[in-house]
Write a structure and sequence with these properties.
9 helices; 78% helix; 0% strand; elongated
């Protein structure tokens, strides 16, 4: 299919690009993205592991100050989070903690005004929430809500991404309600969920 063909073309291109070639990082980046796409279709663990290794290699060529470092960090963080989701409880936390660390650097490279800051904040919030669920450290939940609030302030009411962020924020507030038992938190969570549904177009 198209993904397999894309992967084959990337492999062929990489065969002609030596290790230090100026275009090799970009080719590896595209190849890794195609591997992640196939993983999300087939759940082939080898594809995800290979993609992570490719992103790590690209990152070594995109050091601090490189214009595309934030993109590579973001891609690697998201791939590690996928690895966290599929791994068993014995070693999955390592992937989650590294993903969070990388996503924090992404946000530092996407200051207020950057077009992708909102989505990066939301990604970090979701990662931190997963860490909260395994530790029950409520300061992590407070961080999630702070990240959600800024993310929502940056995403327009007409953007479909806002529906996803609202859904996650509602889930986070619901968790806070179970901790504190405050009715206001529950009401806000319900309103956010309703707002998210309204933004999703009918099929």
């Amino acid at each position: 299919d198209d993904i397999d063909q894309s992967i084959q073309l990337c492999q062929q291109a990489l065969a002609f690009l030596p290790e230090r070639h100026v275009d090799r990082p970009a080719a590896l980046d595209i190849y890794a993205g195609a591997l992640v796409d196939r993983f999300q279709t087939t759940s082939d663990a080898e594809d995800l592991s290979a993609a992570i290794q490719c992103y790590r290699t690209v990152l070594t060529r995109r050091s601090v100050g490189h214009a595309k470092r934030d993109n590579t960090l973001n891609n690697l963080a998201l791939a590690l989070f996928l690895q966290y989701e599929r791994k068993g409880p014995s070693d999955r936390q390592l992937y989650l903690r590294e993903a969070i660390e990388l996503q924090r650097e992404v946000i530092s490279l996407r200051p207020p005004g950057h077009p992708n800051r909102g989505s990066s904040l939301s990604n970090l919030s979701n990662m931190v929430f997963n860490l909260f669920e395994t530790s029950s450290s409520y300061y992590l939940l407070d961080e999630c809500l702070t990240l959600d609030k800024e993310a929502l302030s940056l995403i327009s009411n007409t953007c479909l991404d806002r529906a996803e962020i609202l859904g996650h924020a509602s889930h986070h507030l619901h968790a806070l309600y179970f901790h504190h038992g405050r009715e206001d938190d529950l009401c806000t969570a319900i309103n956010m969920a309703r707002a998210a549904i309204q933004l999703i177009p009918e099929e």
